[in-house]
Structure formats: C-alpha cells, structure tokens
C-alpha cells in the first residue's frame, strides 16, 4: 500500500554567527532517487551526502570523513577517506557527496553546491558518521556501538531513505551523539517522492544557524501507511507518529479528518482530537491514529493537523480503505527449482509456501501439477492434493510442503500449483524442477580476473572446453560472495544451447565494452553474475552439480594467496577440475593489484595469461622438424613459418572459441602468412605436414 506521510518539516534560515573555529555536521542524507530520475542520478539510493558548516576559518588538510557500518559491540570499525582537497573554508557550508553527481545533489536539495568533495566511504541509514582532523573527532552523528538488528537497537536515529537535520543553536558533539540536537522525519520518508521538486520542498540545506531559533515550531517524525480493514471488522490497526514542539507559547492541538481517530494512549482514548501539553515551551508525545469502526466500503482521506499559537501548522494527508468482506484467499511463495540426480533414487528436497483465507464458503484445495506432490506435514503425507478446512470462513496462515516426485526420467518438469475454493477465482503458483543425469566433466575453470579499469572492470572467468559439447545449456556458473558459503544447485547463469569444440576457450564477463578494451577481443558471454571481486569464489555446474570451483567458498580470501583483487588467478596446465575441492597449489597468481599499472592486459604489471591453459603440462605440440614462427606477437599483419622440409603444409588459425578464421597452405621450408584480415587477439596456429602436426599460440596486435 502506498505510504502517506503526516509530515512537513519547518526550518527557518537565520543569520550565521560563529562558535569559534569548528566543523559541524548539519545534515545527512540517505537518498532515494525518484521515478523522474533527477538528471545525473547514479542509482536508486542516490544521493548519499553530508552537509557541514564551517564556523570560523578551517584548513581541511589532514581531515577525514569516516563511516561505521551497522554498529559494533566488539569495537568500532570506521571506514575513512581524506577530505583535504576541500582546502581552507570560512563561515560557509561544504558538502561531501558520497553517491550521486554533485549537480543532482544541488537539484535534489535546492542548495547551490559549489564547495563539494565527491567521494568517501559509502553509508546506509543505520550507519554512524563522523569528521576528524586525523586524530581527534570533531563531530559525530549516530552511535557506533549501537548494533543494527540487535534486540536493544535504538532505531530512533535511523535515516534510511530519509535524512537528518541539526537544530540551529546546537554545536558539534565531538565523540558523542545527542539525538535531541537533531530533527529526523523517520525512515523511508523519501520513498513516495515521485519528483525532484517534491524532495526539493522537504530537504532544506543551508538553513542551519549557530544561533538557536526562538520561533515556535512543530515537528512530526515518522510516517503512516494507508489504514484499512474489512467491512464490519473495524477499527483499523493503529499507527503512530511522534509530534514535538519547541519555543512554544501554547499546547499543541492535533486534529484528524472525519472517519479517523486520534489518541495519546495506545489502544484507548480515541477521539477526533488530542492535546499535547507544553512545558517551558517544549512538548513531545507519541500520537496514535486509526480509521474509525463502522464505516461502509469506500476510500477515506483528509488532512491531519498539528497546530499551536504562533507556529506554522504541520499537516499531512491520511488515507484509509474499507474493503468488502468477500470470500478470499492468498498465498506467499518463494520457491526455487526442485532438483535431484537420477543416481540419488529419491525425491527433490521439499520446499514450502503458506496460504490463508477469509470469509470462505468452502474448504481450500491445493493441487500439485503432474510429477509434483504436496503435503501439510514436513517429510510425510505427500499426495496429489491437500484440503484445508475453514473455521467460520477463516483459514489461518498454513504451511504447505511440495516436492518433485521420485523415479522420474532425466529432464525438465514444470507446471502450476492450483489453489481453489468455491466462489473465489483460482490462483496458481508456477514451479520448475529438473532431474539430472550423470556429468561428463567437459568444462574446467582456467582463470578468474578482477580488472583495473573503471568500476573494477573487466570482471569474469575463463573456461576451457575439455571435450566436444553439443548442448552447452546443461552447464551453468555461480559466484559466491565474500566467503558466504555455497548454496549447491543455485545456478545463477545458465549457458545458452550452443555447441562448442574441445580445445576452445569460453570467456564470461560482466559486459563487452571494457572486456574488449582490456583484452582486445569480445567475451563469449556477458552476465551480471560475473560482477565479482577478488574475494569471491566461482562454481561451475553441469546438470545441476558442481564440477569445478575456484576458491574456498567458506572463506573471504583475506590474506590468502588466492585473493585476486585487481588481479588474476590462472590454472596450471596439466591440472584439471576437482568437483567441490579447491587446490590452491594448482593455480598461479598475480597477487593483489597484479593487473594495475596499465590501460590494457598487455601493459598491466602482470598480464593475465589469456588462453594459455593446456590439458597437459606442455603448452605446445610439435612433431615437425625445424618448426618455428616469428615474430610473436605479430605487429605488422604478417608472420613467418619455417620448417626443415619442402613437403606441403596445411596452415589453419583458430580463435579462442575454436572457430577457424584462416586456412592456407605452402610447399617450402619458409612462408610468410598474411593475417591482415584477422582482428587483434589470441589465436591457435595449427600446421599439418603429412602425418605430423605442430601447434602454437599466436598473439596478433
């Protein structure tokens, strides 16, 4: 349901005067780029930005912006970036834009952003941030010891998809954090903003003043979503916001529109209005709101208003829906593929989904598609269908188990689970399963790389074809992020149904442009699954089974020889696939940053040994006496082949995926071969002289 927000943040721009020389964090934004895109947007969570106010004159040399993710109970861990480039600033606002173009930030906030540092550690709406001079903490927002997700976590200072603004008159907190110095509209406050203009009206940067405001203000923190209930079953569930005021001369009066009710007590005392008492000009209370009982089927809306003498009213729209109490049921299902091996002689692992119903006139029947079976009991009682009885029209949330039947032949099985009950439209849940045969082990991972170009590109893997494969679609590949462990059978990318020949190389990369820029040729396939970093493992699948792996899937690679951050790892010739086993000694490594130092592979500090793997430890095959080629790499579109014999020789050149790109012959001891028709890249040369052959790698530049 669409969220509606009972909030309109009021801030006044006041003249600035100094607190002495200090840096003060005055705003923090965890953005939510709206549907209109805001020209320059770089993602749905942009911009992420910090506003600072410099009181007096500050030289930013040696200063750092730091973020601490999710809190830590065992010791703080801050990510840091030097912001010395901000230079010397005097009595002005400066901005750190972590995510999102600075032009977008200006549009998004309404500020004229000229004093900007773009960069810094990323943060989310539950992360603490701070500014230091390299040694001392100058100001801090959030509690770095407050662990996000813990049972005692204080979410009152969270700003996910929202923002926080420092109250005028409050000063920097050094190494502490005082939430009373901040105005926070609440998490997800920006979620329903559909244009930059809407956001412009909400995020008021450049308004902090070192002098506290004396103007009466009312602030509403938090949000409400649509209120709803079924006809005859009101009132709705209550929702709450926090309403507070400063510099007040009178109490705050909260009124809600017709058909809604408000109270200062959860569960009781609801009326059309409520009064929050001020003491010494300050007031604060949690306000509970609900849609009133006894309403007919309809949509209801109106403005809730918080008012106090001398303050600008703070208002927001409430909406509610009363739906007909018609017979209905629903389900919640997140089902993966159901897979098993013929050799296992059993069913797939079971999975489950939930169903529930209201106002039903009959039982709810759940029917499995052909080759699947369902049960209401985990591990037993499976049949083609199950029935759920209602009690006075209601079926409480119930778990249904489903699996792929045993004894099926190799193949793919699909269908729809069907949910039926009288007078209610049927609902279906699609399912997919696979019964896998034996593996042929015809592919092997031979290389992984994490490139040095923009965005860490190109990223991907090299795979070698050990045997001819008529249909590559039985193979797939997955990445395992940061040593989080394998989810065996979870294939993230399936190859298409191409045919490939033994001896070919397959290159899978995140995208084509940077791969071609770096390696001088196009990748075989592209997929976002290959957005890997140097601490991610790779799994190669055939028929749903892992046949080869790079890296320890339960280790984040930190400090290990097989860490390939901005570098590569390459399988040693003569070694081959090992199933789920990873043997580090079977690989060679560039080391971290091995691909740095150049604009392409040839100029990298340690070039990736593209296409050099061989099934035997020898990297070349030569039965022809006196066989040699030069130059290699080829730089002028021609190279020379020499032998000791004048017998006729057949010459063939193949690309790395096994396609022949040139064929010629000569009958002499020496011949110049023209390769001007062949694009730059890595190739395989094969020369046949009678029953003798010679092979060699060629690099054409």
Strand order of the largest sheet: 7-6-3-2-10-11
Overall mean pLDDT stands at 87
| Residue share in β-strands | 35-45%
Straight-line distance between termini: 58 Å
Shape: flat
- Give me the Rg, rounded: 33 Å
Query: What is the number of helical segments per DSSP (H or I, 4+ residues)?
Result: 3
Largest pleated sheet? 6 strands, mixed
Provide a descriptive summary of the structure in words:
Strands 7-6-3-2-10-11 form a six-stranded mixed β-sheet, with no helix packed on it. A six-stranded mixed β-sheet has the order 36-35-32-31-39-40. With 701 residues, the protein is mostly beta strands. The two termini are 58 Å apart. The chain is built from three helices and 48 strands. It is 3% helix and 41% strand. The protein has five domains: 22-203, no CATH class; 217-323, Immunoglobulin-like, CATH 2.60.40; 334-436, Immunoglobulins (Immunoglobulin-like); 443-603, no CATH class; 619-700, Macroglobulin (MG2) domain (Immunoglobulin-like).
Topology:
Blueprint: E1 3-4, E2 22-30, E3 48-59, E4 64-68, E5 78-82, E6 88-99, H1 102-109, E7 116-118, E8 128-132, E9 137-141, E10 163-166, E11 182-183, H2 196-200, E12 217-221, E13 224-225, E14 227-230, E15 239-246, E16 252-255, E17 260-263, E18 273-276, E19 283-291, E20 298-307, E21 314-323, E22 328-332, E23 338-341, E24 351-358, E25 364-367, E26 372-375, E27 385-388, E28 395-404, E29 411-421, E30 424-436, E31 443-453, E32 457-465, E33 475-480, E34 493-494, E35 505-509, H3 512-519, E36 525-526, E37 537-542, E38 545-550, E39 568-571, E40 587-589, E41 621-622, E42 628-630, E43 638-642, E44 649-655, E45 660-666, E46 670-674, E47 681-689, E48 692-700
Parallel strand pairs: 6-7, 14-21, 23-30, 35-36
Antiparallel strand pairs: 1-13, 2-3, 2-10, 3-6, 4-5, 4-8, 8-9, 10-11, 12-15, 15-19, 16-18, 16-20, 17-19, 20-21, 22-24, 24-28, 25-27, 25-29, 26-28, 29-30, 31-32, 31-39, 32-35, 33-34, 33-37, 37-38, 39-40, 41-48, 42-43, 43-46, 44-45, 44-47, 47-48
